[in-house]
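To make this tangible, this section ends with a sequence with its structure tokens:
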Amino acid sequence: MALQRSKARRARALDAGPAAQATERSRKRKRGGRSPLRRLIYWSLVLGLWALIAAVGTIAFVVSTLPPIQSLEVPKRPPTIEIVGTDGRSLITRGEMSGTDVSIKDLPAYLPRAFVAIEDRRFFNHSGVDPIGLLRAVAANVLRRGVSQGGSTITQQLAKNLFLTQERTLWRKMQELVLALWLERKFSKTEILELYLNRVYFGSGAYGVEAAAQRYFGKPAREVKIAEAAMLAGLVKSPSRLAPSRNPNGAERRAQAVLAAMTELGFVTETMAKTALAQPARAVKPAGAGSVNYVADWIMDVLDDLVGRVEQDLVVETRPMARCARWSAARAMLKANSTARSPPSVSPARRSSLSSI
């Protein structure tokens, strides 16, 4: 029966003429060819495969330009010299990177969370690079026709601070991505966040959260309040422009944005945020900065003659003069920049003592 029907259709096509035959051939070609959807899927897979090959090749080339991953080590923090007064409070800190490292377990919980809330809210969920955060930043920048958000994670920022320059190029960004993935494999999230807090720049020569807390609020990082923690976290975006010592209004507005992000993520309660907003952080003015710097300069000269190159952190304790005559003589010698008198004794241990000042 089927054979008879096929013959009947062929006979009708012959009777219908050349136009009908062309239509029949076209119908057969469409029936045997690929549909548009299947062609789309096919070429999408082909292009995706080539894109993957190109990405792997690019990453391999970037890795080849970096030092061997096995030999990469986090650079040691340059040593600092802290000068403390007779009451044990820090007077000034000198060194290439002022401030000392602090352990994250010694900080109030809301301090590191403030940085996560405003800089990288998916920090604990990604592997160094956050595609969702990157797409969100790109969308925000396109809508606002400018760079209003950055797509770098905390790990990427740490990689840049530790190993790379501050230049904004595509090549540097690719190196940053590779190093961020390496950091995530080598360190835990807590270790990465602690390194970040101790190395990030806060403006006014303050590197690390401890130096920033001392510089802006006159207290150690472990004693900062929620409003102060929010202000410190807000500085990372633009340390020079938002420094509370220069731009208190801008720093306060940024701190408000940090508090809103912390509340949204549940890092602080609404009551805690309202209290912080009602009592905003205020930067303190360093007392007697001129005279302290003058004495610190002299101390640094003495230490240079006494111990030479400083290889580890030092704490220099100052002690009051026993008699006014000795104090007057010391002041006269300081003004003359004299180093004739015997220098103070400094032990090779971490804690040193500078007497007769």
Notes: The CA atoms of residues 128 and 184 lie 6 Å apart. The chain has four domains: 2-32, 36-65, 97-278, 289-354.
